Amino acid sequence: MKKLVLWFVLVFSATVIWGQSVPEIQKLMAEENYSAARKMARELAKKTPTDGDAYFYIGETFYYDEQPDSASFYYNRGNAVNGESAAPHVGIGKLLLDKGQVSEAEKSFGRALRFSKKKPAEAYSLIGSAYLTNQKPNSDKALANFTLARDNDTKNPRYFVLLGDAQMAADKVGEALTNYEFAAGKDKENPEVQMKIARTYLKNGIKDVGQQRLEEVISRFPNYPPAYKDLYELYFQGQMYSKGTPLLSKYVSLVGDDVDARARLARFLVGFAKDYDNGLKEAQTVLQQDPNRVEMYRWLARCQVEKGQAQEGFNSAKTFLEKVGTGRVFSSDYEYLAKAAAKTNQFDIATANYRKVFEMDSTRKEAMLKEIARMNWGATPKRYQEAADAYNELVALGKASSQDMFFLGQCYMQLKNFALADSTFKKYIEINPTAYQGWASRARVNKQLEPDKSKPAQAKPYYEKLISMLETELEATKADANKKRTLIESYNYLAEHNANTLNDYNAAIAFFDKVLAVDPANAEATKNKEMVQAALGGTTPGKQK
Prior knowledge:
This protein is 73% helix and 0% strand. It is mainly α and 545 residues long. Helix 4 packs antiparallel against helix 5. The protein starts with 20 loop residues before the first helix and ends in a 9-residue tail after the last helix. 47% of the residues are buried.
């Protein structure tokens, strides 16, 4: 979900035929009182039944209430009553963007511009908003259109604000602040601009100033609802719960507590504030009031997964995806279903849904493959082949880290594919030549590859390398349980190699002594040393060094 809501971008300046209704609808939308805005837009459509833009506003209230089917109905209704009304074409284009039909959306935007020749700034602002607030935002396209809007009407501070919003989305915070401050200088009584200035400080990590600015907005404009949400989010994340609760109550009193308002509140609490306890309650309340609000299952799933209620989260996520139909589906919906499936040991379902995430959003492919690999490696019992498949996909992408290579090698070891394990650990060592774990793994793999104990040991050079590495800082090695165990393993291997392959019992005893120097209580080394000492009496001097 996107925090940026550009209601003012969706409003044309009042025309003669609309009188004062548009600014009032604009104000209600900016205040997030969408039910009242919808009512007023319906009244406007009755008064001007042949003006398609009125239906556009009805559609917009549904679009931001996550009811795209209803939004589509009114966008198309507006286009049907007057095909030369610009706004419905933008609404239709926005829905096309949601479906990934970019070229068709651009054609629809082109029609909007063609019917707005006298007021191109308004059309550009609408198109910019569509690019910024659709399901797959494109901040570059939004920036381009908002720039054109500003350039076509440099006297309107609103277009500077819109440009700032796109810059915020593109992480150009300094440029956004410049545009916001310019607009604030022209329109000192606009609480929305003041709130956006506060957001620039918060995005830059200057929370104290951002908090102070938001508190000032509420002090100056006590009936402006969005500021209460922003400040509540800040208080909640700072664990200032006693200060946050009254803000939430005030917000509800300003925007109403009908089912649409409560649905938006649930979305905010879960998607932005990360208040999963209250978000869960609100989503459940909405479903009690209106069981057809399918999107509430999305928020239920996220709350339940985050609260450790994996089975409930799985059920809710599955219900949402089964019921959503033509509604909005985000890649994160599949991700939460995958998370819940993984926590309930449904690993094939989890894998399939993690893959759906990057099928929808290719930028997430690396992250999701890593998640698939980690999940299968950590499964009980471990799913080595499935983990190896995911790690190999990362290798093919050129995105495998040295750690990924290490775990891929471990998967091959467990699958007893020692040749592939050896070549994988070789690559790991090339990336991390000073990491003893790589040399230890290669030593163990080569020990498994030794075809005949009477032949020269394949593992020997790797164990010798380990000894040279781990003896360099012997005290540190002895203090680290894993390093200590690896050094003892290396000594034991070379002791066995000298005793059994080379018949060099003195050398074997020397390595057992090294084991006992590191671990004096090592009973196995003591026993083996005694056995070699006993065998030493029966050997010929020529065999000894």
